From TrEMBL:
Keywords: Dioxygenase, Membrane, Oxidoreductase, Signal-anchor, Transmembrane, Transmembrane helix. Pfam families: Asp_Arg_Hydrox. Gene3D superfamilies: B-lactam Antibiotic, Isopenicillin N Synthase, Chain (2.60.120.330). InterPro entries: Asp/Arg/Pro-Hydrxlase, Asp/Asn_beta-hydroxylase, IPNS-like_sf. The chain crosses the membrane at residues 21-40. It comes from Poecilia formosa (Amazon molly). GO terms for cellular component: membrane. Belongs to the aspartyl/asparaginyl beta-hydroxylase family. This is Aspartate beta-hydroxylase domain-containing protein 2.
Length: 369
């Protein structure tokens, strides 16, 4: 082959043409990938619906049986007198509705286990089985796990195996969210004051709008929910815009399934919340102390801890736990802002699957089919 200036020019021109053609092909491939990604996002968005922190509200109580924190609220008690009046039952000083419409208060059994497994299969068909080892193991053997757990830790609804467990956790395991909550202490305290000192919602009631009274053997335990079992309460949210903004900034808040709650919790002097278990071990309950008078204590798994104003306590409420306020009337109430955060050892894929399985209303809808 003879080398000349003309042949070199031809080679360079041919190379440039090839590059241009490759650029066109690469651009076309990139556009196809982008369109596929947009279609996938659209599909996921339609299947999951809008996040509750983006406006999926229900006014009044949660659609999951109207239960506040798993115990029968005044609304649930009202329904119990009607259709499900014969299903009321006292346990540990609390009234459980035992209604088939209530996810938390319904005892876990074969029916729930089958619904969990069907929901997991649906999730795997739509997405993937990858990373589902522990979730599959937990759903498959749920009855055995719940019945064989030691009495110190016995979640009532769902147990995820092989999670590190302890009554209390260090603030470092959810450092970002703990620090954010503690930095928001003045705003949350001010918002509590604004909703707590409102006039009663109706004549004959001592509670301001949005507050619910929970059953206790003595004293008063009041809660003001922003999110109740995964469902935002629109009227309460509107009265607490700063608290709602804080929830939206938390990285590990359980916002999309029935295990997620956020509320202001008040214990009056002399109040006692008797020993009980939470529904699952996949979450850590976080208490930010807003008002903490003397003689108030939280006991989890036999370990006592005291709240501190402006500081967070992280604990696993699937352990047997109780709380009390043994102070004098002049001490005033104990007040905390409570949020449910993911257990740090629940992986992202597992969180997504649990959000799908325990989406508010999913298991109930399946049972009704």
């Amino acid at each position: 082959m003879e080398w000349s200036l003309e042949s070199v020019r031809e080679m360079v021109a041919g190379g440039m043409q090839s590059v241009r053609e490759c650029e066109i092909c690469a651009f076309a491939i990139a556009m196809c990938v982008l369109l596929l990604f947009m279609w996938y996002c659209y599909r996921v968005g339609r299947e999951h619906g809008t996040s509750p922190l983006r406006g999926r509200y229900l006014s009044g109580t949660s659609r999951i049986g109207g239960v506040v924190g798993g115990f029968m609220s005044s609304d649930c008690r009202g329904r119990g007198k009607g259709k499900h009046g014969s299903l009321l039952e006292e346990q540990n000083g609390f009234a459980f509705c035992q209604s088939s419409e209530c996810f938390r208060c319904t005892s876990a059994g074969e029916s729930l286990n089958q619904r969990l497994y069907h929901s997991l299969q649906e999730y795997a068909k739509r997405y993937t089985w990858s990373g589902m080892g522990r979730v599959h193991k937990g759903v498959r053997d749920q009855g055995r796990y719940l019945n064989s757990r030691p009495t110190i830790q016995r979640p009532e609804v769902f147990f995820l195996p092989d999670l590190p467990s302890a009554p209390f956790f260090s603030r470092e395991v959810q450092r970002h969210d703990v620090e954010l909550l503690e930095q928001s202490f003045p705003a949350l305290l001010a918002e509590f004051e604004s909703i707590y000192h409102q006039p009663p919602a109706r004549s004959g009631s001592s509670l301001p709008p949005g507050w619910k009274a929970n059953s206790t053997p003595r004293g008063q335990w009041w809660t003001y929910y922003l999110v109740n079992q995964g469902t935002p309460l629109v009227l309460n949210v509107r009265r607490c815009p700063r608290a709602w903004r804080v929830l939206g900034q938390l990285r590990t808040f359980i916002a999309n399934n029935v295990f997620g709650n956020a509320c202001f919790s008040v214990l009056t002097p002399g109040a006692l919340i008797t020993e009980h278990y939470g529904p699952t071990n996949v979450r850590l309950r976080c208490h930010l102390g807003l008002r903490v008078p003397p003689s108030c204590e939280l006991v989890v798994g036999g370990e006592p801890q005291c709240w501190s104003e402006g500081s967070c306590l992280l604990f696993d409420d699937s352990f047997l736990h109780r709380a009390f306020h043994d102070g004098n009337p002049e001490d005033g109430p104990r007040v905390v802002f409570m949020v449910d955060l993911w257990h740090p050892n629940v992986a992202a894929a597992e969180r997504q699957a649990l959000d799908y399985i325990f989406t508010p209303g999913r298991l109930e809808d399946r049972e009704g089919k």
